[in-house]
Amino acid sequence: MMLVFVAIEISNKGVIYSIEKFQDKINIDAKPIESKNFHFTLKFLGEVSEQIVQKIIQAIQTIEFSSFSISLKGVGAFPKLKKPKVIWIGTDENGGNLLIQLSKKV
User: In the structure, how many helices (H) and strands (E) does the chain have?
Assistant: First the structure.
């Protein structure tokens, strides 16, 4: 069994650099995510067997979509801003809507 989620990697070097600078500036007691792991989560699937993972990969490969741009906008945290376990960066409305559409296809 493995923990599985479907995501889009963030590959733009300028965006990655900006996020790394942000990570350096915030002062929380947590280990920052390595830049190679920056992503937008589309669907969290939980614990899944290797056999099911292969079926998921096959199904995802049938999804058709066009490339699109996203502007990062806003920052938040959960479960609480004062004691975050996860800090997230949001998107502009258009990019967010396109991510939602793709997530629904997934």
Answer: 3, 4
Q: How far is it, in rounded angstroms, from Cα 37 to Cα 7? A: 10
Q: Which two tokens stand for residue 56?
A: 């998921």
Tokens of 45: 């699937």
* The pTM of the whole model exceeds 0.85: no
Tokens describing residue 20: 């790394």
At residue 30, the pLDDT reads: 77
Distance CA 99, CA 42 (A): 7
Q: For residue 94, what are its two tokens?
A: 């258009």
pLDDT one-digit tens code per residue, 26-60: 877 778 889 999 999 999 999 999 999 999 999 99
- Token digits of residue 62: 């049938």
